[in-house]
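Researcher: Please translate sequence to structure tokens.
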Amino acid sequence: RSEAFGIGIVSEKEIDKVGIKRAVHDAMMIAVSEVEKKLKHSLDYIIADGGIYLLKGYDMESINKGDENHYSIAAASVLAKVTRDRIMLEYAKKYPKYSFDSNVGYGTKQHIKAIKKHGLCDIHRKSFEPIKSLLDGI
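Model: Translation complete:
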């Protein structure tokens, strides 16, 4: 049973500016802050999926394949994916040429073809592949 959850969102511009490692850290801090506000106290212990960077000032564990072995991590993974997919559906309305409603931002052949035809839109992360290589080739 969950008493609270938080979702941390950082923009694509922030990811390009500070890098993915720092952006993930910042998003986690936003999520933790949301939870602490809802609970009205600081967290005693945090578990996260493996590969997640530990947050200073928190008793925290990063568990390899945590989403396969802990319901709370699996639930957090689902919340993150659903949130991201909903954001991408909103972007699909704003940028219909890129088919974000079907590729949800992943570098499918159709998506790469749209980028080559129409160029980049505001939400493309320029520090990520294959965009980075496409920009290097210009």
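Researcher: Any highlights?
Model: The chain has two domains: 1-84, 95-138.
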